[in-house]
Amino acid sequence: MRVLITGAGSGIGKGLALALATEGHTILVTDLRQQAADDVAREIQASGGEARALALDVSDHGSIEALNGEPVDVLINNAGLQHVAPLEDFPPEKFDQLIQVMLTGAAMLTRALLSGMRQQGFGRIINVGSIHALVASPYKSAYVAAKHGLLGFSKVVALETADTDITINTVCPSYVLTPLVEQQIAAQARANGISEQDVIDEIMLKPMPKGAFISIEELAGVCQFLISPAARNMTGQTITLDGGWTAR
């Protein structure tokens, strides 16, 4: 299948691109940074997979509209960023940016590709959510708001596409050890006045009974299932990989 992944130049997006390429999918690696997308596409090609690279700014309508006519079977809305600060100190422009990238951008990219999916009678949309689509943490107001919004957005699109073989679901992992999470560790340490190891032990992993970061392989396995015929009737759903966090 032809799989477009946003924010695929690093972190979860890169991991998913590499993993899904090994399953035989053709990957359209998109990222805000052309060089990062190029590097991942070349890595896939060097391993015998098929990939193309494309610069894409999901917060820019012109950049999204340039994809018009691009044949895509699977869209993975993964692009994201983080900013950690109390709401009183949260820069309004930064709040807007997080919402624009992780909620509005995901919605507008989905909008742009839906007509093509309808024409071919098939489509799979996977939103990379977060444990913070289900619960909250202090100092992450914009991120939590954006990720919570994804769940409602997915349910609406699931209803609007129920008349054809298109599904949309949101995968919600707790912490995956990526460069973005490593930045969060440092930011949380500063915000809470504790060591980075204490952030890992007492803030990130403590709520998870299994006490381990989620792996890219686990995320990729869930995505592969959602793409498969076995998940044809799974739509508008929230798939949670949280090590037992929300079981408490």
Provide a concise account of the structure shown.
With about 250 residues, the protein is an alpha/beta fold.
Radius of gyration: 17 Å
Uncertain runs = none
Assign the CATH class of the largest domain.
Alpha Beta
Which percent bin holds the helix content? 40-55%
Tally of helical runs: 8
Helix/strand structural class: alpha/beta
What strand order characterises the main sheet?
3-2-1-4-5-6-7
Strand content: 5-15%
| β-strand number | 7
The CATH homologous superfamily name of the largest domain equals NAD(P)-binding Rossmann-like Domain
- Envelope shape: globular
Strand/helix succession: EHEHEHEHEHEHHHE
Q: State the domain count.
A: 2
Mean pLDDT: 96
Rounded to the nearest angstrom, the distance between the terminal CA atoms is 38 Å
- Report on the biggest sheet: 7 strands, parallel
The CATH architecture of the largest domain can be named as: 3-Layer(aba) Sandwich
Query: How is the CATH topology of the largest domain named?
Result: Rossmann fold
